Automatic annotation (TrEMBL):
Keyword Nucleotidyltransferase (UniProt): no
PANTHER family: DEGV DOMAIN-CONTAINING PROTEIN DR_1986-RELATED, DEGV DOMAIN-CONTAINING PROTEIN SPR1019
InterPro entries associated with the record: DegV, DegV_C, DegV_domain_contain
Name under which the protein is recorded: DegV family protein
One of the record's GO molecular function terms: lipid binding
Keywords annotated in UniProt: Lipid-binding
Keyword match Chloroplast: no
Cleaved signal peptide residues: none
Lineage: Bacteria, Bacillati, Bacillota, Bacilli, Lactobacillales
Amino acid sequence: MAKLKIVTDSSATMKPSLRDEYDIHIIPLSVMIDGTVYTDDENLTGENFMEMMAKAKKLPKTSQPPIGEFVNLYDELGKDGSEILSIHMSEKLSGTVGAARQASNISQSKVTVIDTETTDQSLAFAVMRAAQLAQDGKTSEEVLPEIQQMLKNTKLYIGVSTLENLVKGGRISRAKGLLSSILSIRVIMEFKNGDLFPIVKGRGSKTFNKWFERLKNELKENSTVKKIGISYAGGKEQCEKYKNELQELFPQLEIYLLHTTPIIATHAGKDAFAIMYYADQV
């Protein structure tokens, strides 16, 4: 039966059970570690990847999915006349959304491609909402305005303990002003409009904690918060503390604490974390 079907990429951090519940189709990126290419799927967990990256001789390299994989998936999903909404990570982080657009012009199916200008659980927020609406029988024309408004009202903050991976991976642009002879400074950046904007930097562990207190105050003053997600790369002790404190503020919300994907971990580095939220008003 024809309906709206949802596609995203593997940078969307979400629980596998929710992916299956909402019938979300994920096309994986790939990671090359010391000459061996691994697909970013269930066979390469975030925890396993962190161990592999630590032992690697060089920083792993990430690659977007081939256009042909998108075409094959779109054609298969559209066989029954269904239309497809393909929702992806920021074009400034990866060529994935560009490959999706090219594939949409080749595919026999009707495909609408969205660059969310975000990633990780922020991307997953939009993807899961789109999938919920699709299950309710909504068309892409009905879903798009709500998803676009949701993305406008989503904030993503990233904390990194070292800039080394971001520099080596070429993912630092506006954050270049942070560079110094010492890369092991702690930095909080806001990921906004597909780019990184540094907002806090420091050398000690208090850097993150002081910023987190400010974030809590920001959230306490917003009565319209609907979703909060926390992702981490490597150790999660600090993030568990953050989750517990946010859960006290928002006992009605289910706050997911998830290991980020290998794609994000490659560039963010060990002990990086992200806190993101969606509100009706920001």
